[in-house]
Design brief:
Blueprint: E1 3-7, E2 10-13, E3 18-25, E4 32-39, E5 46-51, E6 57-59, E7 67-72, E8 77-82, E9 91-99, E10 120-125
Length: 126
């Protein structure tokens, strides 16, 4: 079981960039798929991006080409670089982990993940 914590949230103008970081502690970190999720005001929690221990990635269509997920297994961190931010990207951003899962055969869905962090707020203004 991993313990996760998000950091790096804040406020940014539309078109700008922001990076959020997921830091993990615990055993067998490399065995986990780590995903980023977000939940806007009055919205369902949705998957944003995910990465496995080998560095393979998957993105939601709404962020593909704008966001980049990366992983540092030595530091046990997963970073989400967000570029060309839009007002609709405003949300609480969470990271979560799923152990021993095949990234290509799974959805970036909350029910597939556990070990959730507490979230970090991202606000995009006009």
């Amino acid at each position: 079981q991993l313990q996760l914590a998000e950091s790096g949230g804040g406020s940014v103008q539309a078109g700008g960039s922001l990076t959020v970081i997921c830091s993990a502690s615990g055993y067998r970190y490399n065995d986990y798929v780590v995903g980023w999720f977000r939940q806007g005001r009055g919205m369902f929690r949705e998957g944003v991006a995910a990465i496995n221990g080998d560095g393979d990635t998957k993105y939601a269509g709404s962020v593909k080409g704008r966001f980049t997920i990366s992983r540092d297994n030595a530091k046990k961190t997963v970073t989400l670089q967000m570029n060309s931010l839009k007002i609709e990207d405003t949300a609480d951003y969470y990271c979560a982990a799923a152990r021993n899962r095949r990234l290509r055969e799974m959805n970036i869905a909350p029910g597939e993940f556990g070990s959730w962090g507490r979230g970090t707020q991202v606000t995009v203004s006009s």
